[in-house]
Amino acid sequence: MSHKRGISRVDIDDETITNFTVRVANRGYEFMDGAGYRDSITGRLYFGGLDGYVSFLPDKMQGNQYPPEARITHLYLNNERVLPGREVGGKVLLKKPVYLTSSLVLDYDQRNFALEFSAMHYANPAHNRYAYYLEGFDSDWVEGDGRFRRAVYNGLPPGDYVFRLKAANSNGVWHSQETSLAIRILPPWWRGPLAYIGYFLVLLLIVMGVYYVFLVKWRLKHQIELERFEIDKLKEMQSLRSRFFTSISHELRTPLTLILDPVERMINTEITPEDKGRYLSLIQKNAQRLLRLLNQLLAFKRIESGHESFNWQPAALQKLLYAIYASFEVKAATRGIDYRFESELPQLLVWADVDKMEKVFYNLLGNAFKYTPQGGRISMEVSEVAGRKREPDGPVYVQIIVRDSGEGIAPEIQNQIFELFYKANELADQNSNGVGLAYIRELVLLHKGEISVESQVGKGACFKVVLPLTVVNDQSITADLPASFLTSVDDGDPSASLEAGVDVEISTILLVEDDHDIRNYMAETLQPFYQVLQASNGQMGFERALKNHPDLVITDVVMPELSGLELCEKLRNDMRTCFIPVIMLTSLSDSEAHVEGVESGADVYLTKPFQSTLLLAQIRRLLASRDQIRERLIAIAEKGSSEPSPASVEEAPVDEFLSRVRQHVEEGVFDVQELAECLHLSRTQLYRKVKATSGQSVSELVTGIRMKFATDLLRSGENNVNEVADRLGYSEPGNFSRAFQKYYGQTPRSFMQNR
């Protein structure tokens, strides 16, 4: 069939259409639609067109069986043609024609390009077909006819590509070979290998810089923390040293007091030979006490400096330990302590430094006795350490346990109590110098041993010492303890020398001091002049003050259970004892300690060592001041000063008492029991205090206040006798008149007429 564009053959069986184009003078021949004829005899076909007709035998027609070869003809960059041998962007891209080029390298800014191609077949070239495919970018082949012979690509990312091209003739016969061109688009400079190396180096420099900054900051922070720690440690050491020297001062001043005062008394007064011997014994004992303390400090320093030497000698271990234990038996019996020695160790002869062994366990037992109350329990237990097999020539591991039922040590400070200057608790701060346990630990470590503590607050402490001791195998060697092995143990027990029921004409002084020697010495000093009660700690002192109502209290500052400062505060805050004068004795000589003593309510603050004459003078002054207060109370009762101003702390309870009495009198009622309860006193204590302070009975003092109040009412002229009697709580006016006349020598009516 014919049409304007040519002739088409339709195969009904194959359902295919083949188009034929007729060209005349290099131009297409246009046929008329449907203008066709077939010669039935020859089989020739005739088709008519505008310029004539065309005829041919269909059996002689053969399709185009020669596929064209595809070839890339031109390269365009940014819409500009690239010629071979010409520089583009500073370099030659094509050294030869593009169809002879197998590979192409483009810069990043040349990634917008086009490839023009053609088919090497000139039979009906306009109807040739093309297909191209860019490997690495296109997802499928792109087909086109002869009118579009250019492949355009824009903005390709850097990478390697392969441009593949193939062609077909007008009859659709494709060439079996493809034309290809390898294309590499270089990355930009900022994405090249050198750039990435540069990036890595920059990043590395940044990381190193950040690390260096953080390292410098960390070092600076660490240095600051280290310096702050050193400063805090220095402050702590200074504080501990200050506390240590304060405690050492206390340890030195107490024996110095017991040395200097007896010496002064022996020089200034005549004494009997018996007293002289007792004083000299006291001086010797306290001089030895000073020597022991100094020796302990020097020994500790020798250990620290590594100059301590051992005096190894054979020693019967169980006999040695039992001798240390036995030196405390008298002290245990005196204080009613359940004291035991338990040993599961056979008799062994070992090499030991006897002096250092004595120091270790003497100190441990001394601490146990110091913190165990009367009636408590202390034991010394000796055994071989379980689980450590003894070699034939090796050491025997001995465990010695000192157990007590004292106050105990808090778990959080058990690792610190072996440090120099450290005090385990307030009690330890008051009674130890901070050297003992540190010294013990160093001695144990010198023996290559171990020391530990197990304790709970309120349940006592258990000190365990493990020592590796070498057994003496030579049976000919024997051992005896030296005569000077053990230091004497004070076996004194604080107890009251006098109880209630003493002669009321002699003033009673309560002496509160934890040191046995100085307490006994002061008692001996005071007993020729006063009745003396004794207490060994602040709590016992407060209980005795409540029970016996002494005229004056003398107390040390540093004591167990209740310090002197706390005792003084309790005495001042209790209405039953607030009027009692207090003399405070201390080893602390600084002004801050004096201020604390005065603030706690002490009347006199004496520093050890003190002269007994000065103490006696202060006692006499305070007792005389008490007598003046008594006279003032009587004067207030008689004159009826309405606004008394206490001159001292002792006068405050006087005014409290008078204020309570006036309140009851003005209310018209008076009950001695109620008054006593208001003052936190029993009825008996109230009578005793009033009698001791004013020299009058309660009824006499109250009557005086009543009569003074009555005269004030009568002078005002606003009340008659009956009204005054009623206000004063008298049931009958006659009873008031008789009491008034007995007190003033005239009747109330006469007083009103003569006023």
From TrEMBL:
InterPro entries documented for this protein: CheY-like_superfamily (IPR011006), HATPase_C_sf (IPR036890), HATPase_dom (IPR003594), His_kinase_dom (IPR005467), HisK_dim/P_dom (IPR003661), HisK_dim/P_sf (IPR036097), Homeodomain-like_sf (IPR009057), HTH_AraC (IPR018060)
Annotated TM spans: 194-214
Gene3D superfamilies, alphabetized: 1.10.287.130, 3.40.50.2300, Histidine kinase-like ATPase, C-terminal domain, Homeodomain-like, Immunoglobulins, YVTN repeat-like/Quinoprotein amine dehydrogenase
Reaction(s) this enzyme catalyzes, per UniProt: ATP + protein L-histidine = ADP + protein N-phospho-L-histidine
SUPFAM superfamilies hit by this protein: ATPase domain of HSP90 chaperone/DNA topoisomerase II/histidine kinase (SSF55874), CheY-like (SSF52172), Homeodomain-like (SSF46689), Homodimeric domain of signal transducing histidine kinase (SSF47384)
Limits of the Response regulatory domain: 508-623
Keywords: DNA-binding, Kinase, Membrane, Phosphoprotein, Transcription, Transcription regulation, Transferase, Transmembrane, Transmembrane helix
Residues where 4-aspartylphosphate is found: D556
Limits of the HTH araC/xylS-type domain: 655-754
Protein's UniProt keywords contain Kinase: yes
Pfam family, one: HTH_18
One MF term in the entry's GO annotations: phosphorelay sensor kinase activity
Domain annotation Histidine kinase: ranges: 247-471
Enzyme class at the top of the EC tree: transferase
Keyword hit for tRNA-binding: no
UniProt-listed Enzyme Commission number(s): 2.7.13.3
Name this protein carries in UniProt: histidine kinase
